[in-house]
Design a protein that fits this description.
The chain is an alpha/beta fold. It has one domain: Rossmann fold (3-Layer(aba) Sandwich). It is about 30% helix and about 25% strand. The chain has 13 helices and twelve strands. A twelve-stranded mixed β-sheet has the order 3-2-1-5-4-6-7-8-9-12-11-10. Strand 1 and strand 2 form a beta hairpin. Helix 6 packs across helix 7. The longest helix is centred in the middle third of the chain and has 17 residues.
Length: about 375
Protein backbone atom coordinates (compact mmCIF):
# COMPACT_ATOMS: atom_id res chain seq x y z
CA UNK A 1 0.00 0.00 0.00
CA UNK A 2 2.86 2.37 0.78
CA UNK A 3 4.47 1.67 -2.59
CA UNK A 4 1.13 2.24 -4.32
CA UNK A 5 0.65 5.51 -2.47
CA UNK A 6 4.10 6.73 -3.48
CA UNK A 7 3.47 5.74 -7.08
CA UNK A 8 0.24 7.76 -7.13
CA UNK A 9 2.01 10.75 -5.55
CA UNK A 10 4.63 10.68 -8.29
CA UNK A 11 2.37 10.31 -11.31
CA UNK A 12 2.75 14.00 -12.13
CA UNK A 13 6.47 13.47 -12.67
CA UNK A 14 5.79 10.70 -15.17
CA UNK A 15 3.45 12.91 -17.22
CA UNK A 16 6.13 15.52 -17.97
CA UNK A 17 7.84 15.64 -21.38
CA UNK A 18 11.09 13.66 -21.36
CA UNK A 19 13.12 15.97 -23.63
CA UNK A 20 12.86 19.11 -21.48
CA UNK A 21 16.61 19.80 -21.67
CA UNK A 22 16.40 20.76 -25.33
CA UNK A 23 18.13 24.18 -25.45
CA UNK A 24 16.01 27.20 -26.35
CA UNK A 25 16.80 30.83 -27.02
CA UNK A 26 16.16 32.99 -23.97
CA UNK A 27 14.89 35.81 -26.17
CA UNK A 28 13.61 38.94 -24.42
CA UNK A 29 12.09 37.18 -21.42
CA UNK A 30 13.17 38.41 -17.99
CA UNK A 31 15.08 35.42 -16.58
CA UNK A 32 18.02 34.47 -14.40
CA UNK A 33 20.78 32.09 -15.49
CA UNK A 34 22.46 29.31 -13.50
CA UNK A 35 25.72 28.05 -15.01
CA UNK A 36 26.36 24.42 -13.96
CA UNK A 37 29.20 21.97 -14.37
CA UNK A 38 27.66 18.49 -14.48
CA UNK A 39 29.74 15.36 -13.83
CA UNK A 40 27.87 12.13 -14.50
CA UNK A 41 28.38 8.38 -14.52
CA UNK A 42 25.17 7.87 -16.51
CA UNK A 43 25.16 6.34 -19.96
CA UNK A 44 24.78 8.86 -22.79
CA UNK A 45 21.83 8.66 -25.16
CA UNK A 46 21.24 10.05 -28.65
CA UNK A 47 17.64 10.96 -27.82
CA UNK A 48 17.24 14.73 -28.30
CA UNK A 49 16.84 16.79 -25.15
CA UNK A 50 17.65 13.89 -22.79
CA UNK A 51 21.45 13.47 -23.11
CA UNK A 52 21.83 10.84 -20.36
CA UNK A 53 19.54 8.03 -19.24
CA UNK A 54 19.40 5.93 -16.06
CA UNK A 55 21.84 3.24 -17.16
CA UNK A 56 25.48 3.08 -16.09
CA UNK A 57 28.03 4.70 -18.36
CA UNK A 58 31.58 3.53 -19.04
CA UNK A 59 33.29 6.78 -17.99
CA UNK A 60 32.81 9.99 -16.07
CA UNK A 61 31.43 12.63 -18.44
CA UNK A 62 31.48 16.40 -17.96
CA UNK A 63 29.00 18.90 -19.38
CA UNK A 64 28.32 22.60 -19.10
CA UNK A 65 24.58 23.21 -18.68
CA UNK A 66 23.08 26.70 -18.42
CA UNK A 67 19.57 26.77 -16.95
CA UNK A 68 17.23 29.73 -17.47
CA UNK A 69 14.86 30.41 -14.56
CA UNK A 70 11.83 32.72 -14.82
CA UNK A 71 11.74 35.60 -12.37
CA UNK A 72 8.09 35.24 -11.29
CA UNK A 73 7.96 32.00 -9.33
CA UNK A 74 7.79 30.81 -5.73
CA UNK A 75 11.05 30.07 -3.92
CA UNK A 76 11.56 26.31 -3.79
CA UNK A 77 9.50 25.56 -6.90
CA UNK A 78 10.46 24.18 -10.31
CA UNK A 79 8.25 25.29 -13.18
CA UNK A 80 8.39 22.39 -15.63
CA UNK A 81 7.60 22.94 -19.31
CA UNK A 82 4.27 21.41 -20.28
CA UNK A 83 5.60 20.96 -23.80
CA UNK A 84 8.89 21.29 -25.65
CA UNK A 85 10.28 23.80 -26.31
CA UNK A 86 9.48 25.47 -23.02
CA UNK A 87 8.72 29.14 -22.61
CA UNK A 88 11.59 30.96 -20.78
CA UNK A 89 9.09 33.49 -19.43
CA UNK A 90 7.24 30.75 -17.52
CA UNK A 91 9.38 27.61 -17.44
CA UNK A 92 12.74 26.23 -16.43
CA UNK A 93 14.62 25.68 -19.70
CA UNK A 94 18.20 25.21 -20.79
CA UNK A 95 19.94 27.70 -23.04
CA UNK A 96 23.16 25.72 -23.40
CA UNK A 97 24.17 22.07 -23.07
CA UNK A 98 27.78 21.47 -24.08
CA UNK A 99 30.07 18.52 -23.54
CA UNK A 100 33.13 19.65 -21.58
CA UNK A 101 36.68 18.33 -21.45
CA UNK A 102 38.49 18.22 -18.07
CA UNK A 103 40.93 20.94 -19.16
CA UNK A 104 37.99 23.30 -19.75
CA UNK A 105 36.83 23.16 -16.13
CA UNK A 106 39.33 25.84 -15.07
CA UNK A 107 37.80 28.44 -17.39
CA UNK A 108 34.30 27.51 -16.20
CA UNK A 109 35.35 27.87 -12.56
CA UNK A 110 36.92 31.26 -13.18
CA UNK A 111 33.66 32.40 -14.79
CA UNK A 112 31.33 31.15 -12.05
CA UNK A 113 33.14 31.10 -8.68
CA UNK A 114 33.16 34.79 -7.78
CA UNK A 115 35.59 36.35 -5.34
CA UNK A 116 35.17 33.70 -2.63
CA UNK A 117 36.22 30.87 -4.99
CA UNK A 118 33.92 28.38 -3.27
CA UNK A 119 32.62 25.16 -4.82
CA UNK A 120 29.28 23.51 -4.02
CA UNK A 121 28.99 19.86 -5.08
CA UNK A 122 25.46 18.45 -5.10
CA UNK A 123 24.63 14.72 -5.18
CA UNK A 124 21.00 13.89 -5.94
CA UNK A 125 19.01 11.02 -4.49
CA UNK A 126 16.98 7.94 -5.44
CA UNK A 127 14.32 8.03 -8.17
CA UNK A 128 15.89 10.95 -10.04
CA UNK A 129 16.17 11.29 -13.80
CA UNK A 130 18.95 13.38 -15.32
CA UNK A 131 16.70 16.36 -16.08
CA UNK A 132 15.30 16.23 -12.53
CA UNK A 133 18.80 16.50 -11.07
CA UNK A 134 19.74 19.41 -13.35
CA UNK A 135 16.63 21.50 -12.70
CA UNK A 136 16.54 20.74 -8.96
CA UNK A 137 20.14 21.79 -8.43
CA UNK A 138 19.68 24.90 -10.56
CA UNK A 139 16.69 25.80 -8.37
CA UNK A 140 18.74 25.32 -5.18
CA UNK A 141 21.65 27.40 -6.48
CA UNK A 142 19.35 30.19 -7.64
CA UNK A 143 17.15 30.31 -4.53
CA UNK A 144 19.99 30.14 -2.00
CA UNK A 145 21.97 32.83 -3.85
CA UNK A 146 25.04 31.25 -2.28
CA UNK A 147 27.77 32.73 -4.54
CA UNK A 148 29.44 29.40 -5.35
CA UNK A 149 30.68 27.50 -8.38
CA UNK A 150 27.93 24.83 -8.66
CA UNK A 151 28.95 21.27 -9.55
CA UNK A 152 26.27 18.61 -9.99
CA UNK A 153 27.22 14.95 -9.63
CA UNK A 154 24.50 12.93 -11.36
CA UNK A 155 24.71 9.17 -10.89
CA UNK A 156 22.69 6.48 -12.75
CA UNK A 157 19.21 6.51 -11.21
CA UNK A 158 16.45 5.13 -13.40
CA UNK A 159 13.88 7.52 -11.95
CA UNK A 160 11.45 4.83 -10.82
CA UNK A 161 10.36 3.90 -7.30
CA UNK A 162 10.38 0.26 -8.41
CA UNK A 163 14.16 0.34 -9.09
CA UNK A 164 15.33 0.99 -5.54
CA UNK A 165 17.91 -1.81 -5.49
CA UNK A 166 19.23 -0.85 -8.93
CA UNK A 167 19.67 2.75 -7.79
CA UNK A 168 21.42 1.66 -4.60
CA UNK A 169 23.92 -0.40 -6.59
CA UNK A 170 24.36 2.48 -9.03
CA UNK A 171 25.31 4.74 -6.14
CA UNK A 172 27.93 2.20 -5.13
CA UNK A 173 29.05 2.01 -8.78
CA UNK A 174 29.72 5.77 -8.77
CA UNK A 175 31.69 6.09 -5.52
CA UNK A 176 35.20 6.35 -7.01
CA UNK A 177 34.12 8.90 -9.62
CA UNK A 178 32.56 11.16 -6.97
CA UNK A 179 35.72 10.81 -4.88
CA UNK A 180 37.72 11.91 -7.93
CA UNK A 181 35.51 14.99 -8.44
CA UNK A 182 35.82 15.97 -4.77
CA UNK A 183 39.59 15.48 -4.79
CA UNK A 184 40.01 17.48 -8.00
CA UNK A 185 38.12 20.43 -6.48
CA UNK A 186 39.91 20.22 -3.13
CA UNK A 187 43.42 19.98 -4.59
CA UNK A 188 42.97 22.87 -7.03
CA UNK A 189 44.92 25.94 -5.86
CA UNK A 190 42.16 28.12 -7.35
CA UNK A 191 39.53 26.73 -4.97
CA UNK A 192 39.26 28.15 -1.45
CA UNK A 193 36.55 25.93 0.02
CA UNK A 194 34.33 22.96 -0.88
CA UNK A 195 30.85 22.22 0.48
CA UNK A 196 29.16 18.94 -0.38
CA UNK A 197 25.36 18.68 -0.30
CA UNK A 198 23.66 15.33 -0.83
CA UNK A 199 20.02 14.24 -0.83
CA UNK A 200 18.45 10.91 0.09
CA UNK A 201 20.43 7.94 -1.31
CA UNK A 202 23.03 10.43 -2.51
CA UNK A 203 23.90 10.92 1.17
CA UNK A 204 25.30 7.40 1.35
CA UNK A 205 27.29 8.02 -1.83
CA UNK A 206 28.73 11.32 -0.55
CA UNK A 207 29.74 9.95 2.85
CA UNK A 208 31.21 6.83 1.30
CA UNK A 209 33.25 8.89 -1.19
CA UNK A 210 34.69 10.99 1.65
CA UNK A 211 35.44 7.83 3.61
CA UNK A 212 37.27 6.40 0.59
CA UNK A 213 39.38 9.55 0.25
CA UNK A 214 40.21 9.47 3.97
CA UNK A 215 41.28 5.83 3.86
CA UNK A 216 43.44 6.45 0.77
CA UNK A 217 45.01 9.77 1.76
CA UNK A 218 44.92 9.60 5.56
CA UNK A 219 42.29 12.32 5.96
CA UNK A 220 39.48 14.22 4.27
CA UNK A 221 40.93 17.24 2.42
CA UNK A 222 41.02 20.31 4.65
CA UNK A 223 39.20 22.40 2.04
CA UNK A 224 36.14 20.15 2.35
CA UNK A 225 34.76 22.05 5.31
CA UNK A 226 31.04 21.31 5.24
CA UNK A 227 28.88 18.26 4.47
CA UNK A 228 25.10 18.76 4.26
CA UNK A 229 22.98 15.59 4.21
CA UNK A 230 19.33 16.20 3.40
CA UNK A 231 16.90 13.37 4.23
CA UNK A 232 19.80 10.89 4.10
CA UNK A 233 18.77 7.37 3.13
CA UNK A 234 21.46 5.87 5.32
CA UNK A 235 21.50 3.08 7.87
CA UNK A 236 22.34 4.76 11.19
CA UNK A 237 24.90 2.10 12.18
CA UNK A 238 26.60 2.35 8.78
CA UNK A 239 26.71 6.14 9.04
CA UNK A 240 28.31 6.00 12.49
CA UNK A 241 31.06 3.70 11.19
CA UNK A 242 31.63 5.80 8.07
CA UNK A 243 32.10 8.94 10.16
CA UNK A 244 34.56 7.19 12.47
CA UNK A 245 36.56 5.92 9.51
CA UNK A 246 36.76 9.44 8.06
CA UNK A 247 38.96 10.27 11.03
CA UNK A 248 38.90 13.27 13.35
CA UNK A 249 39.78 15.77 10.61
CA UNK A 250 36.47 15.64 8.83
CA UNK A 251 34.04 18.32 7.65
CA UNK A 252 31.28 19.66 9.85
CA UNK A 253 28.14 17.62 9.17
CA UNK A 254 24.63 19.05 8.97
CA UNK A 255 21.67 16.67 8.86
CA UNK A 256 18.16 17.53 7.70
CA UNK A 257 15.75 15.00 9.21
CA UNK A 258 11.98 14.55 9.24
CA UNK A 259 10.20 11.87 11.22
CA UNK A 260 7.25 11.95 8.79
CA UNK A 261 9.35 11.34 5.66
CA UNK A 262 7.17 8.96 3.61
CA UNK A 263 9.90 8.06 1.12
CA UNK A 264 12.22 6.94 3.91
CA UNK A 265 9.44 4.80 5.37
CA UNK A 266 9.51 2.83 2.13
CA UNK A 267 13.30 2.69 2.27
CA UNK A 268 13.08 1.30 5.80
CA UNK A 269 10.84 -1.53 4.60
CA UNK A 270 13.25 -2.31 1.77
CA UNK A 271 16.27 -2.24 4.08
CA UNK A 272 15.39 -4.82 6.72
CA UNK A 273 13.32 -2.37 8.81
CA UNK A 274 16.40 -0.40 9.80
CA UNK A 275 15.53 3.22 10.63
CA UNK A 276 17.03 5.62 8.13
CA UNK A 277 19.19 8.48 9.37
CA UNK A 278 16.96 11.07 7.70
CA UNK A 279 13.85 9.88 9.55
CA UNK A 280 15.04 9.83 13.18
CA UNK A 281 13.18 11.66 15.94
CA UNK A 282 15.98 13.55 17.69
CA UNK A 283 13.77 14.40 20.67
CA UNK A 284 13.63 10.72 21.68
CA UNK A 285 16.12 8.14 22.87
CA UNK A 286 18.48 6.73 21.84
CA UNK A 287 19.01 9.53 19.31
CA UNK A 288 18.99 12.33 21.88
CA UNK A 289 21.84 10.79 23.89
CA UNK A 290 23.77 10.01 20.73
CA UNK A 291 23.46 13.61 19.64
CA UNK A 292 24.65 14.93 22.99
CA UNK A 293 27.87 12.93 22.65
CA UNK A 294 28.43 13.73 18.96
CA UNK A 295 31.13 16.09 17.78
CA UNK A 296 30.80 18.46 14.86
CA UNK A 297 27.24 17.55 13.89
CA UNK A 298 24.18 19.80 13.53
CA UNK A 299 20.68 18.35 13.13
CA UNK A 300 17.76 20.35 11.75
CA UNK A 301 14.45 18.61 12.42
CA UNK A 302 11.95 19.66 9.73
CA UNK A 303 9.12 17.37 10.86
CA UNK A 304 6.75 20.23 11.70
CA UNK A 305 7.25 22.09 8.41
CA UNK A 306 4.05 22.12 6.37
CA UNK A 307 5.27 23.80 3.18
CA UNK A 308 7.46 21.04 1.77
CA UNK A 309 6.75 18.36 -0.83
CA UNK A 310 3.98 15.77 -0.63
CA UNK A 311 6.32 13.00 0.51
CA UNK A 312 8.08 15.22 3.08
CA UNK A 313 11.32 14.08 1.46
CA UNK A 314 12.62 17.24 -0.25
CA UNK A 315 11.79 19.95 2.28
CA UNK A 316 15.39 21.15 2.22
CA UNK A 317 14.82 22.39 -1.34
CA UNK A 318 11.09 23.15 -1.46
CA UNK A 319 10.62 25.03 1.83
CA UNK A 320 11.43 28.75 1.44
CA UNK A 321 12.57 28.99 5.09
CA UNK A 322 15.07 26.15 4.73
CA UNK A 323 16.31 27.39 1.35
CA UNK A 324 17.02 30.79 2.87
CA UNK A 325 18.76 29.23 5.85
CA UNK A 326 21.02 27.23 3.55
CA UNK A 327 21.94 30.27 1.51
CA UNK A 328 22.47 32.58 4.47
CA UNK A 329 24.45 30.23 6.66
CA UNK A 330 24.90 26.53 5.94
CA UNK A 331 26.52 26.68 2.51
CA UNK A 332 28.79 29.38 3.92
CA UNK A 333 29.84 26.99 6.70
CA UNK A 334 28.39 29.09 9.52
CA UNK A 335 26.68 27.91 12.69
CA UNK A 336 22.89 28.13 12.83
CA UNK A 337 22.63 28.29 16.61
CA UNK A 338 24.72 31.31 17.49
CA UNK A 339 23.26 34.60 18.65
CA UNK A 340 23.63 36.24 15.26
CA UNK A 341 20.84 34.07 13.85
CA UNK A 342 18.20 35.99 15.77
CA UNK A 343 19.81 39.35 15.12
CA UNK A 344 19.94 38.80 11.35
CA UNK A 345 16.45 37.31 11.31
CA UNK A 346 17.73 34.66 8.91
CA UNK A 347 14.57 32.61 9.11
CA UNK A 348 12.09 35.46 9.08
CA UNK A 349 9.90 36.84 11.83
CA UNK A 350 7.40 34.00 11.60
CA UNK A 351 9.88 31.23 12.29
CA UNK A 352 12.05 32.42 15.14
CA UNK A 353 11.06 31.24 18.59
CA UNK A 354 12.46 30.82 22.08
CA UNK A 355 15.79 29.06 22.65
CA UNK A 356 16.15 25.93 24.76
CA UNK A 357 19.12 23.94 26.04
CA UNK A 358 19.14 20.15 26.05
CA UNK A 359 21.83 18.64 28.24
CA UNK A 360 25.30 20.02 28.77
CA UNK A 361 26.91 18.79 25.59
CA UNK A 362 24.59 20.34 23.05
CA UNK A 363 22.38 23.33 22.49
CA UNK A 364 19.03 23.31 20.76
CA UNK A 365 17.30 26.34 19.32
CA UNK A 366 13.58 25.75 18.96
CA UNK A 367 12.26 27.71 16.03
CA UNK A 368 8.74 27.50 14.79
CA UNK A 369 8.64 25.04 13.18
CA UNK A 370 12.34 24.03 12.84
CA UNK A 371 14.18 22.34 15.71
CA UNK A 372 17.92 22.96 15.49
CA UNK A 373 20.19 20.75 17.54
CA UNK A 374 23.93 21.36 17.48
CA UNK A 375 26.67 19.49 19.31
CA UNK A 376 28.87 21.68 21.45
CA UNK A 377 32.04 21.46 19.34
CA UNK A 378 32.37 22.28 15.65
CA UNK A 379 35.57 20.49 14.64
Amino acid sequence: MLILGLAIALTACASRPQDVLTPVKAGTASTDKVDLLVATTRAPTDEPGIYFNGERGPDLTLSNVVVSIPEKREVGSIQWPSRVPGDPARDFVTTQVTKMQPNEAKAWFKRTSGKKRRVLIFVHGFNTQYADSVFRFAQIVHDTDANVAPVLFSWPSRGSIFDYNYDRESANFSRSELAAVISAAATSPAVSDVTIMAHSMGGWLAVEALRQIALQDGRVPAKVSNLILASPDLDIDVFRKQVIEMGPKRPHITLFVSANDRALRLSRLLSGRMTRLGAVDITREPYLSQMESATGITVLDLTALQNGDRLNHSKFATSPEVVQLMGDRLIQGQSVTDSSLASTNALGSTTLGAGHVIGSAAGAVLTAPILIFESAARK
